[in-house]
Write a structure and sequence with these properties.
heterodimer, A: alpha+beta, 8-stranded mixed β-sheet, elongated, B: 179 residues, mainly alpha
């Protein structure tokens, strides 16, 4: 039986092939020679992990070009919700709010990165092994706050406060999602949906000593204060800070309102300049500006209240 | 001239991706092995081959809106980008080392050879799991027989046999697809 010899012959030849790349060894048996030709080509076999990684980099880049290319999709501030139980969280977002998953890719810190769409707004969610959550409050404008409130409870949320008519003209309720986040669900009664200039989804940050956070948003991040209502004692009850097409809301954390430590992406024209400005205003570096494989330049800072801000700009393409 | 098959539906794939870049994935899946095979045949270092392959697809995604369908397969367009990327790489390497690069400037693209190697790479995925694993560990990871045997909990003799069967299977499947 000749086969064991062939198997041995082939293995010796493969060994030589792998250790001395430039000199294919002569093999006596024509059968072995034919197999050896394939073996020589297999030295260039691509890594499966590389193929998948590049694919997801391209998908993220494509998603970025799409959102920056269409006016409707331009969104300067994007909340990024980091949770421990991502699949459960996504199921909740779908059931409670009808959020639609538009992209799923491996995250840059391992784990999974997901992009979601809700009405006119994009937000992101992700998990990474060992990554702490990023508790934030999300202010939603929906056509029927009462119905969405009921759906959220049915999907597992716990009530924070029941739907009520607010003095500022909103029917509004609050729920907590079991992943550390609070959701304000509102309908602007005058318009039947949302007030002019606001998106369906607006991130809200609560801080103890909200004045210093408000100051960082303006001085460190370049936001413009639009509204700032204060309590009789002077605490920030509700402020909104505009970043081009998006708004971030700020309020004092007190009583049942817990401070947030959210994560937000800020689309900027110049990542390096935004990073320097944020550091100068007291931000702490999370990551220095660097080019990312998915086609963006990115940098990160943390404010003194524990919220993370990531600046991002698409890389200018090199033409073939 | 070209032996690359103009696959049915390629034009639709291109037009879909031009309208919505998120549809680029289909073109990527169809052409990844070709581009990689071309580049890996010209640069020895795996890390460099991966960097250049990545460059090619990023450039292709950026340039796709300007791609015009003229009946030339999309792969030929990609391989032109790849050829430029490889040439840039060798020029850069030559500048850094202050010497002439090893790559000849006039470089005929042998499409038939690229297609053969790309088919081989794709066929690895059709092998039985244990044979595929031996091929990947041996040729991609460059592990010794002993290491592979230990990782698989098999004898070295068994691993040698899996290696042989894998290559035999690949040869048989190659002759089915490539005649």
């Amino acid at each position: 039986m000749a086969e064991p010899t062939l198997i041995e012959q082939l293995d010796r030849a493969v060994e030589t092939l792998l250790t001395r790349r430039d000199s294919p060894p002569p093999a006596a048996d024509p059968e072995v020679t034919a197999l050896l030709r394939l073996a020589a080509d297999l030295r260039d076999l691509p890594r499966e992990e590389f193929k998948q990684q590049l694919k997801s980099d391209l998908e993220r880049k494509a998603a970025m070009t799409t959102t920056t290319a269409t006016h409707e999709g331009v969104q300067t501030v994007t909340p990024y919700l980091v949770v421990e139980r991502l699949e459960e969280f996504l199921a909740f977002l779908g059931q409670a709010f009808g959020a639609e998953e538009t992209l799923r890719a491996p995250g840059s810190a391992g784990g999974t990165h997901v992009e979601l769409r809700l009405d006119d707004s994009t937000f992101m969610a992700g998990s990474a092994p060992g990554a702490p959550g990023s508790p934030i409050a999300m202010h939603l404008y929906v056509p029927d706050a009462d119905a969405v409130y009921r759906r959220a409870l049915a999907a597992g949320a716990t009530p924070f406060y029941e739907p009520m008519d607010q003095p500022y003209g909103d029917r509004e309720a609050g729920v907590r999602d079991g992943h550390g986040n609070t959701w304000y669900i509102a309908t602007h009664k005058a318009t039947g949906h949302r007030p002019r200039g606001l998106r369906a989804v607006t991130p809200t940050l609560h801080a103890r000593g909200a004045d210093s956070l408000l100051d960082f948003l303006k001085r460190g991040l370049g936001g413009e204060e639009e509204v700032c209502e204060r309590s009789p004692e002077g605490a920030v009850r509700h402020a909104s800070v505009r970043f081009a097409d998006s708004v971030v809301e700020v309020g004092e954390a007190r009583g049942p309102i817990e401070p947030t430590a959210g994560m937000l992406l800020l689309a900027v024209p110049d990542v390096d300049a935004a990073y320097e400005r944020a550091l100068a205003a007291g931000g702490i570096s999370l990551e220095a500006p660097a080019d990312q494989r998915y086609g963006a330049r990115r940098a990160g800072v943390k404010d003194s209240h524990g919220n993370s801000w990531y600046f991002s700009a698409p890389l200018k393409g090199v033409r073939p | 001239m070209t032996t690359l098959k103009s696959e049915a539906g390629e034009r639709q794939l291109i037009e879909a991706a031009q309208k919505d870049p998120r549809r680029f994935g289909g073109l990527y899946e169809q052409n990844f092995e070709r581009v990689y095979a071309f580049i890996a045949g010209r640069v020895r270092d795996r890390g460099v081959a991966e960097d250049l392959t990545s460059t090619v697809f990023h450039r292709a995604l950026e340039s796709l809106p300007r791609f015009e369908w003229r009946g030339v397969p999309f792969a030929a367009w990609l391989l032109r980008i790849a050829r430029n990327a490889v040439a840039d790489h060798w020029q850069r390497a030559a500048r850094e080392q202050g010497s002439a690069g090893p790559e000849p400037t006039e470089d005929e693209v042998n499409l038939e050879e690229i297609e053969r190697r790309a088919t081989l790479f794709r066929l690895v995925d059709t092998l039985p799991a244990d044979q595929r694993r031996v091929v990947v560990e041996r040729f991609v990871e460059q592990r010794s027989l002993r290491e592979i045997a230990r990782a698989l909990g098999r004898s070295e003799g068994a691993v040698k046999q899996l290696q042989f069967r894998a290559l035999e299977n690949l040869r048989a499947r190659m002759s089915e697809t490539h005649g």
